[in-house]
Amino acid sequence: MSYISQTLSDLEKEHNAAIHTAQEKMLTELNDAQASGNFEKIQEASLVFQNITTELAEEYIKRIEEINAMNHKVVADQEPQIYTTNRADINLNLLVYDGDRDYVIEFQKDDLIQDTLKKVTENNGKFKSRKHLLKSSLRLTKTLAPTLHEIGAHCKKTLKLKADIEFFVYQSDIFNASCYPPDDNKLYIILSSGIIERFSKEELTFVVGHEIGHVLFEHFDYPVRQILEQGENDLAPIHAMKLYAWNRNAEISADRAGLLCCQNFEAVGRTFFKLSSGVTTDSLDFKLNDYIEQFVDLEKVLNDTDHDPSDWYSSHPFSPLRIKALELFNKSETYAKFNETITGEITEEAMEVEIKRIMSLMEPENLESNSEHSEKLQRLMFLGGYLISNADGIVDDSEIQALSSIVSPKIFANCMMTIKGLTEQEMISEVQQLAKDLDIVLSVMQKLNILRDLSIISYADGHIDDSEVNVLYNLARLLYINTDFIDRVISDAQGV
């Protein structure tokens, strides 16, 4: 076949639809062949599917090249303009991180997600933020918190907000801040007592600006947990993976708003340092460059046996990636357009490409890779996912579809061909051997990515059974990862 889409986003949808059609046909043929015990027909269905997906991949790449050739030079004002000036007069389309915006555009075109959002709104109604906050926390007036209100006034002016800001505080030593769904004329920011007491004015300015950023970019439009719970019978697990990936990318956009308000990258560095270390006194001589250098070799940090790798993982990007992404923004021509004291050293395109590479460290492994260990890695992913799906004794079609979303089509077809011939114990034995073979070649970060993606898939229907958690625990132990990491990922998934 030949693809006819004129844009990359439409092409991706067209390609995914073609792959889905091929998968559906293959599943039907596999079920018929397995029911009749016709092994030759199973092989034939797998081979046909592999050939189709290979042809589709070749056509997909060919069409990408054709579209890129047509749009070789895309100027900034030709990029999607999806953010309005309803909340602020600042140029949000220029400020936003491309990875955040691109997912939003994809979600806007996804009928399943949009239909689920409508149901969320119909079933829950509009959340009354102010009423909830007045009942659960203390409102900070200008008299009670003059410095905080100075910060709010500064951020309002810098970001050209059209609404006022109302602050609330709750008792907790944990450093935390969040924003609540806004009203037309008011934004709501709640901070823990610990962060107010132990962060400087500049550091709090970044924190407040960051939270305002979430409001400006309308990140409330996609409440991940509610979408997944409402869509448990309709959304595929791949939707969960994309929603969580967007959730992490959204933090990068919000960080940029925080820097615009703070306008002091060293203060931002101190903020991340305090958030990640918990040290807020002068007992340590903070040096920004040393702090950034500390995280250049992420593999070395994560492979430290004295370090708990789960600290780096949540629904947010871990701090080293955020500070590196913000360092690039701080040196960019994009930031220079908002801050006249900055001389842009790198172009917007170069900045976005590098940040995308950095953020990919938290994305699934490149399963299309032809590396020496790619097949074993994907086989481990498939079998691990199958054991999780089979934990309740039944693997339904939606779970098979989920498995197809985490491995390449060729490996998926091969695994489907052989899976019915294995007992559960044989699968477990093979997983044990694969984990042993891969242990010396996989970094801790890669292992965490594998477990995180399998955890997200297990929770994609909005809930997770104890039997599924036990399988995840066993997979973590095989990869020499603390089982607390599984609890952390599941907890974050439930709390997004």
UniProtKB/TrEMBL annotation:
GO biological process, one term: proteolysis
Pfam families, per the entry: Peptidase_M48, TerB
Domain Co-chaperone DjlA N-terminal: start-end pairs: 387-484
Record's bilayer topology term: Multi-pass membrane protein
GO MF, any single term: metalloendopeptidase activity
CDD domains named among the record's database cross-references: M48_Ste24p_like, terB_like
Localization: Cell membrane
Residues spanning the membrane: none
Residue ranges constituting the Peptidase M48 domain according to the UniProt record: 146-327
Organism: Cellulophaga algicola (strain DSM 14237 / IC166 / ACAM 630)
Cellular compartments per GO CC: plasma membrane
Cofactor(s) listed in the protein's UniProt record: Zn(2+)
InterPro entries: DjlA_N, HtpX_protease, Peptidase_M48, TerB-like
Transmembrane listed as a keyword: yes
Protein name: Peptidase M48 Ste24p
